Amino acid sequence: MADGAPDPPASAPAPARDPPPPAPNPSSLLHPRREPFEHGLLPIPKLVFTDPIQALLPLKQKLLGQPPSRRVAAAALAESLQISPDHARLVLDTLASVLHSDSDPLVRAKPDEVDSLGADVNDLVLFLYIQSYKKLLPRSHKDSVAVADVWPSTSAFDGYLSALSPLQLARSNSRRFMPSQVDEEAHQLSYLQKHLANIVSLLAEPVEGEGEESLVFTMEGFEHLGLLIQFGDKGSEGIPISQAAPFFANSDPDMPAVPVPATQVHDWILQNIISSLEIISERVSPKENGPANSTDPDVAMTEACPASIKSSPGARGACFIEGISKSSFVKQASDLKGSSVKVLNCHDSVIYILSPLKYATIYGCSEATIVLGAVGKAVRIEHCERVHVIAAAKRVCIASCRECVFFLGVNQRPLIVGDNHKLQVAPYNTFYSQLEEHMTEVGIEATINKWDEPLALGMVDPHDSLSHPAGVSDAQAESAARLDPDQFTNFLIPNWFESESVGSTEGNPFPLPDAYMTSQQRNHKSLGEIKQMLREVPLEENRKRELSSALHVYFKDWLYASGNIRQLYCLQGD
């Protein structure tokens, strides 16, 4: 290069990139506990406060002044809230079903001990506070014409309650229109974020001698927040919430932990909620920018049996069984990794879930038979039409269903809410070899069956975020009638897929009421007489063979006409 010529500029070094942020540790993420929001909301107007904190702070102080000071019995609860004894017992039973600790005395109490034992006052006020929660509404359906006239409106309230009947709602809102698990979690986190200051003030305690302005949290009080929030993906089976908090994590178990200022607790939880919402936002953004039929980010769907069947492990232990149509489907204990199952939008099918569970939800199903093994906490059945549900459970809630029959072995009164029509209840009618072992595992008592004592609450759900005309909110839900004993039949669960282990159950563990037992014995006697008559019919051997062949042909025709032949092919194929 010629002398005097300027040197060419050196290429600027590439700016150093910041290292990518570390992936969030799943065990350190804050999540809302979904159970109180999905199974703990009751449509009892006196439990829904316009200003919860103004109502519940004085209520807590009043209850603390009554012996025993830390627990609230059913009678005191009924008197304080001005509700009936039945509703007070319902509050205690519902709270027990969603508590975060299985060691709580209310969870472990025998049915005749619940009223006198009562609930811990901190758990109770938190439970009452979230009765103000409003559920996330389903997204608007895109094709209203496609769902028109699916279900004729027969209720005088249909025009008030919604433009769609329950099945229309379920059919028009498939998973991409229903709130996804991510959307619901974000909604619940936003609720907790908005109400965190009130929730903290409900549990905090004043420092002795310093007045109400100086509030602190003991480790015991902090643990009660575990009713609403949790860390990691294991839910209530994970670490205690106090061990996730830096101010209690290293406390000496043999020494009382030093109380922490309530402001510090508030700020730490708030920061964790904000972080979780940011992560959810990052997960949702790709879905919104991707194809319209992309899968929810928290549910990796996998094929199972026919192509129309979708079964997937959901977030934090829930298993989703979705979109089964004209098929049969079996899930056993070895197939389920979590303790919660959701059966969504299944039609014209038979579904067997032969496993011990804590929670089960059946939503938007029609023309189906669904068998639940043993559910130790709660079952919710919602927006279903012409479905037969067979369940052994601690408690069952039925919401906005039509022309359904429920064969129940249930330890608590079945709860009926919403816009229901032509429901029937009947005693439990099946068994499988491991049923009694599963019932023992989750705490269901075969000697207690309140299938025929349904408790009907309000027709309108105050948690649905909809506005309703004056007077409609006071309407009571249509209850369920008892199935005619002459219509009662046993349901046989095929045993050829019980290969993993054989249990000891050889019959229905729930005793049948006399009327149903008499009807069953009469049917068995009639069947025996018909068999005897056929055996003794005075025909030549070739004519007997023709008769037997004709009976087989008629039975095969019935299998095809009823659709039951599909069960044989699908289950044998499994």
Provide a short characterization of the protein structure.
This protein has 17 helices and 21 strands.
What do you see in this structure?
It is a single chain. The protein is an alpha/beta fold and 574 residues long. The chain is 33% helix and 17% strand. The chain contains 17 helices and 21 strands. It has helices spanning 34-39, 52-64, 74-81, 85-98, 105-108, 114-117, 121-129, 158-161, 166-172, 181-203, 219-223, 241-244, 262-289, 435-442, 514-536, 541-562, 565-573; strands spanning 30-32, 71-72, 119-120, 205-207, 211-217, 229-231, 260-261, 302-303, 310-313, 318-322, 328-332, 340-344, 350-363, 369-382, 388-393, 396-399, 405-410, 415-417, 423-427, 455-456, 480-482. The strands form four sheets. Strands 8, 9, 10, 11, 12, 13, 14, 15, 16, 17, 18, 19, 20 and 21 form a 14-stranded mixed beta sheet that branches. The chain has a three-stranded antiparallel beta sheet with strand order 4-5-7. Helix 2 runs antiparallel to helix 7, helix 2 (52-64) packs across helix 10 (181-203) and helix 3 (74-81) packs across helix 4 (85-98). The longest helix is centred in the middle third of the chain and has 28 residues, at 262-289. Keywords: Cytoplasm, Cytoskeleton. Residues 1-34 are annotated as: Disordered. It is found in: Cytoplasm, Cytoskeleton, Microtubule organizing center, Centrosome; Cytoplasm, Cytoskeleton, Spindle pole. Residues 1-25 have a biased composition (Pro residues).
